[in-house]
Amino acid sequence: MFLIIMIVVVIDVSEKIESFIQKEAPLKAIIVDYFFNFIPYFVNLFSPLFTFIAVIFFTSRMATRSEIIAILSSGTSYKRLLYPFMISAGVIALLSLVLNNFVIPHATKNRMKFESIYLQNKFYNNDKNIHMQLTPDNYMYLEHYNTDENTGYHFSIEKFKEGELYYKLVAESIRWDSIKNHWIINNYYIRKIKGMNETITSGIVMDSALGFTPKEFGRKDNVVETMDYFELNKYIDSERLKGSNNIELLEIEKYKRNAVPFASFILTIIGVSIASRKVRGGIGMHIGLGIFISFAFVMFMQISNTFAAGGFLSPIVAVWIPNILFSIVALFLLKTAQK
């Protein structure tokens, strides 16, 4: 794991060294703010793979020395032989679960702050005709938003009650006041409808809290990766309320954080079942087969995630299909393992 992480770090440094030099990134910030928050993600990403390889290597060594045969011949059941493996897999899965849902999101948030200063170009919001549902009965529209000036143009907000429009505000522009933390509405008029009666008021400038902030229009690349378990659930609820098209991607991220740690149990069972049998190829044969199964598992997970993102599968089904299928493989190998 250490060697792989060092290789990843060296490759990453070679790709980004020019940006570090051009933007004069401090060495302390590169190490502490970037790489210390960069490494946990890859450690967790590779943990199921290296757990599997470790199980294969360790168990294969025991099988080669006929220790597995000696253990089973002494009257110890195969189920009892699996206990320490499964306990260890449980510890790794629990650590991975905590890392996925709480530690890595905050580390990613700090890393992305560093990247926004020293690696990424300035962000411009190019979205046009922005529609947003603020609450079940409130809807907002902007023609476009300028992130430099924190200003939105051709703004309107509509409020409904029991399916009927009762309030509409239309403005030439809105601008965020960062000191008072509210919006300044310019050149506006307001329609208030009550039954058959309608009143219209207008003005030049008005301060208002509109139920959203400039963060809604900022950079959203990988923003979901910076949210812990509770923040992600809250964000999914708010995006669903707004009618966002990215719900599937958000739910894939949510379910994947819990499904990937579970793979430690599956790969451990597969590893023990394969490596506990003494074969002529020895450790090399076992490790080769183990690596093939690991990459097949990872590839299958990526394919299923792609289907979910395209709307062909439910996110929870797509994320858990690799675990379900490889659980069947694990049970089959466990049943046919040398006992």
Number of helices: 8
Determine the structural class based on helices, strands and strand pairing: alpha+beta
Share of helix among residues? 55-70%
Major β-sheet strand ordering: 1-2-3-4-5-6
| Order of secondary-structure elements | HHHHEEEEEEHHHH
Q: How many structural domains are formed by the residues?
A: 2
Distance between the termini: 32 Å
Name the overall outline: elongated
Approximately what portion of the residues adopt beta-strand conformation?
Answer: 15-25%
What's the pLDDT, averaged over the residues?
89
Supply Rg.
27 Å
What are the low-pLDDT stretches, counting only 5+ consecutive residues below 50? none
Total strands: 6
Major β-sheet, in short?
6 strands, antiparallel
Compact description:
The chain contains eight helices and six strands; from the N terminus they run ααααββββββαααα.
Name the descriptors.
339 residues, six-stranded antiparallel sheet, 8 helices
Explain the overall architecture.
- A hairpin with a 2-residue loop joins strand 1 (128-135) and strand 2 (138-146).
- This protein has 339 residues and is of the alpha+beta class.
- It has two domains: 2-119 and 244-336, no CATH class; 128-218, no CATH class.
- The chain is 59% helix and 20% strand.
- A six-stranded antiparallel β-sheet has the order 1-2-3-4-5-6.
Topology:
Elements: H1 2-22, H2 27-64, H3 67-73, H4 78-118, E1 128-135, E2 138-146, E3 151-161, E4 164-177, E5 182-194, E6 197-208, H5 229-242, H6 247-275, H7 282-309, H8 315-336
Antiparallel strand pairs: 1-2, 2-3, 3-4, 4-5, 5-6
